[in-house]
Amino acid sequence: MHAMTLDTLALGKRFGSFQALSDATLQIRPGTVHALLGENGAGKSTLVKCLSGYYTADSGSILIDGREQTITAPAQARALGIGMVYQHFTVVPGMTVAENLLLARGALPPVIHWAGVRRALTNFMATTPFRLDLDARPVELSAGEKQKLEILKQLLLQPRLLILDEPTSVLTPQEADEVLGALRERAHAGMCSVLLITHKFREVTAFADDVTVLRRGCQVFSGRATDSTPAALAEAMMGVARSLPAPPQRLLQPPGPERLHVSQLQVNGDRGEPAVRGLTLSVHAGEIVGVAGVSGNGQRELMQALTGQRQHVGGSVQVDQQPFHGWRHENQRLCVRSLPEEPLLNACVGALSVADNMALRDFEQAPLAWHGWIHWSRIRARAREWIARHGIKTQGERAPISSLSGGNVQRVVLAREVSVSARLLLVSNPVFGLDFAAVSDVHRRLMEARNAGCAVLMVSEDLDELLSLADRIVVISAGQIVFETMAANADRNLLGRHMGGHDQPTELAA
Amino acid sequence: MSAHAWVDLLLAMLGGAIRVGTPFLFVSLGECLTEKSGRINLGLEGVLVFSAMAGFGAAWLTSSVWLGVLAAGLAGGLLALVHGLVCSLPQVNDIAVGIGIMLLGNGLAFYLGKPLMEPQAPQIPSLMLGDWSSSANVQAALHINALFPLGLALALLLRWGFTHTRWGLLVRMVGDSADAARALGTSVNGVRLAATVAGGFIAGLGGASLSLYYPGSWNEGLSSGQGLIAVALVIFARWNPLRCLAAALLFGAAGAVGPALQSVGYGAAYQLFNALPYALTLLILLLTCSPQRAARGAPMELGVTR
User: Fold this and answer.
1) Most buried among A224, A393, A497, B199, by the most CB within 10 A?
2) How far are the Cα atoms of A312, B70, B121 from residue B64, in angstroms, in the given order?
3) What's the CA gap between A269 and B292, in Å, rounded?
4) Distances (CA, A) of B83 to B44, B94, B96, B171
């Protein structure tokens, strides 16, 4: 059998004083899909990096087909038949699909005979469930297609164990089902074993045979996927002491007056290509409008254009019936606030202190300033108050914000953006990479802002997040809104079809 | 000007395009190769001057022009090696190092080249492609630097090599995504060092063309910024060796306008015409710039495109 049997016994790995992995035990049966669950920082990535040769474990052992192996380098892991698909893309953006595949195959001949290579690649692709244009370049591909290219690169090496790190975060539900279904078929045919890192319970129950849960570097649960329930898995991930926090309370209220009106907006992408093409939407006071879509369909450019990070090519944006460009004085007058993605990069100055970052919006205004002179003590006093109120874990208000964890950085930004009652909040992927506690915190704050009458526009790649939080969901595809529905009676599959751009005109009318 | 003078002017520009454009061609091909690997070598101006001096010196000492050409290439490769090695260190900015290399190359060349102002060195032969014509102007225009066909072949070779050889793919991968290259176990610094040295060697041939063909002597004002213009030219050519060829000929022709006007007896404001290549550089950078998007076709690891 080609598929690999892999066991790790009490694997440990320490970084300085931080014990990332202490007792990680994993048993992968050959020809199965094994899901690996855990919160951020639970040691999932460290574990798979020990398997793929990026780290070497300090203690414990790795058994492949029952024989102990030490893996010290990626090349060695590859030679053993372990292939790894990373969460971030490692395709070469400016080279064609054929060139990317050829490079991944390794052992390049000095001179490449493209006719033969292309024939071989076409034949190879016919044996996989994925179809990509050999001449397309990744810069022109959607995130989903890039993910398929990453998987193809690994399949080309005929791995005996394929490791995937959250492969479906950039896919539509349909694409995710297609990819995971295809991989499971391969595994069950005995061609390879699959280790799947995920945080979506749906994928565990639908596609995994076995599941292992890690918490603080230790295995806390292992068993058949069919025997486990999402509730039990969540409990294992977070520890028995903490249970899933209650979902935020939604106040039933009719939507207020229109706050944000975007009309026929056109924005270009990084390479000058149209990214937002004549997009129209509106957000009313007291409602959360969720923008669903596969990443790379113009969400990033839309939000950057709204927050003033990107120039408009055409169309108009109005807040409270007044033209809006995202300028500082407009933000202050109209109370427009934002929670951009990657908050440390887009909403903070990493080297400045927590207190300074909290004052970025209004440090030049009374009461923090007086005729151009800044009252540093007031800035620090307010920061201390917000740190206490929002439960921010920091060494103090003078600590540089880059020393905080991702969840706490987002809490700082939230404190700054919602403490002064915002009238319009522009939010992008607000919980990306945060742990359970931070996620529920952020969601609760957003709901509170909405209940208090704030208009919230929220872009998220996580459909479940939108379904639970939003009042209304619009689907963005190729830079346009292609579908709109109330969240309460939204149909996942229908949304997914529109996200993938496979909509029928009749459905649009529905 | 009469119609006859116009024809003469065009012929002079054609000849000038190749005569003046050959150094541009080599420097831009060298820079193109280096930049494809994700690194900028602004030091090519210094490389050009230093290799022109070295080539002239070697040709004079050995009385062999081809040994001089080889020495120019090696001198260029050597100086580029310094750039490549320093840039391989962590946290080193390739643009700052490039400026250092430019000053170093100029300084070394002026210092070592003091005794080379007076002597005459053997010259690179011309290919007489115009002998079929009875017109002296046509003949003059088609006296072609023997290095030019080499540059032409090199441009074609690079164009083909970038897509059809292992080395070409590795250079482009490293230039496009250092992360991807590392994930595949390729030495990013190793490939960039090799591409920088090879680029320096090619640029060195341009230096030989300066001191051993046109103008054909060694003096301190020999290059007057051609190495820097070549960097702009690579951006204009969108990192495509064949477009580098076209751009080099265009700049060569622009550089030949001043002398050509003089040769047909139109001498007024010729300094202004001599400044044409520099004005053209600014104009082209203005026309090809865009605040909205990174340059299309640019290696994504390149500092200027991020």
Assistant:
1) B199
2) 62, 10, 9
3) 8
4) 10, 8, 10, 17
Contacts of A184 (CB under 8 A, 6+ apart): A33, A194, A207
Which chain B residues are Cβ-neighbours of A107 within 8 angstroms? none
What is the sign, positive or negative, of the torsion defined by CA atoms of A233, A237, A241, A244?
negative
Q: How far apart are CA A167 and CA A510, in angstroms?
A: 32
Please give the Cα distance from B147 to B127 (Å, whole number).
10
Locate the domains of chain B by residue range. Answer: 3-303
Do the chains contact at A90 and B179, CB–CB below 8 Å?
Answer: yes
> Which residues of B lie closer than 8 Å to A, measured between beta carbons?
163-167, 169-170, 172-173, 176-177, 179-181, 183-185, 290-294, 296-297, 299-300
Instruction: Give me the residue from B184, B291, B294 closest to A271, CB to CB.
Output: B294
- For the record, the structure tokens of B53 come out as 């001096």
Report the C-alpha gap between B103 and B114 in whole angstroms.
Answer: 17
- CA dist A18 and A42 (Å) reads 12
- CA–CA gap between residue A60 and residue A82 (Å, rounded): 19
Which residues of chain B have a CB within 8 Å of the CB of A149?
none
Q: Which of A92, A110, A271 sits opposite B176 (nearest CB)?
A: A92
Give residue A184's identity as a one-letter amino acid code: R
Q: Which of A467, A464, A455, A389 is nearest to A427 (CA)?
A: A455
State the pTM of this model.
Answer: 0.77
Furthest-apart CA atoms within chain A: distance in Å:
77
pLDDT per position in chain A (510 positions), as tens?
589 999 999 899 888 777 888 888 999 999 999 999 887 778 888 899 899 888 888 889 999 999 999 888 888 888 899 998 887 778 898 899 999 999 988 788 999 999 999 999 999 998 887 888 899 888 777 777 888 899 999 889 889 999 998 887 667 777 788 889 989 999 999 999 999 998 778 888 889 999 999 888 888 889 998 888 887 887 888 776 555 566 678 888 888 899 999 999 999 987 678 899 999 999 999 999 999 988 778 898 999 999 998 999 999 999 999 999 999 999 999 999 999 988 888 899 988 999 999 999 989 888 899 988 999 999 999 999 999 998 888 888 999 998 887 788 989 999 999 877 889 999 998 887 677 778 888 899 999 999 999 999 999 888 888 998 999 999 998 899 999 999 998 888 888 888 877 544 433 333
Comparing CB atoms, the residue among A75, A92, A273 nearest residue B173 is A92
- Of B167, B147, B158, B293, the closest CA to residue B234 belongs to B158
Residue B92: strand pairing partners? none
Of A90, A103, A111, the CB nearest to B165: A111
Q: Which residue of B has its CA nearest to A138?
A: B176
Q: Which two tokens stand for residue B177?
A: 């995504």
Which candidate, A301, A344, A309, A300, places its Cα nearest to that of A434? Answer: A344
Chain B residues whose CB is inside 8 A of the A92 CB are 172-173, 176-177, 180-181
**CA pair distance A26, A8, nearest whole angstrom:** 5
- Chain B nearest-CA distance from A274, in A, is 11
Residue B280 exposure: Cα atoms within 13 Å on the Cβ side: 22
Rounded Cα gap, residues A443 and A467, in angstroms: 12
Q: What share of chain A is helix, strand, coil (3-state, %, to 5)?
A: 35, 25, 40
Residue A218 amino acid letter: C
**Phi/psi of residue A225, nearest 5 degrees:** -65, -35
Max intra-chain CA distance, chain B: 65
H/E element holding A276? strand A274-284
CATH of B3-303, one of 1.10.3470, 3.40.50, 2.60.40, 3.30.420: 1.10.3470
User: How do beta strands B143-145 and A82-85 pair?
Assistant: unpaired
Q: How many CB pairs under 8 A join A and B?
A: 73
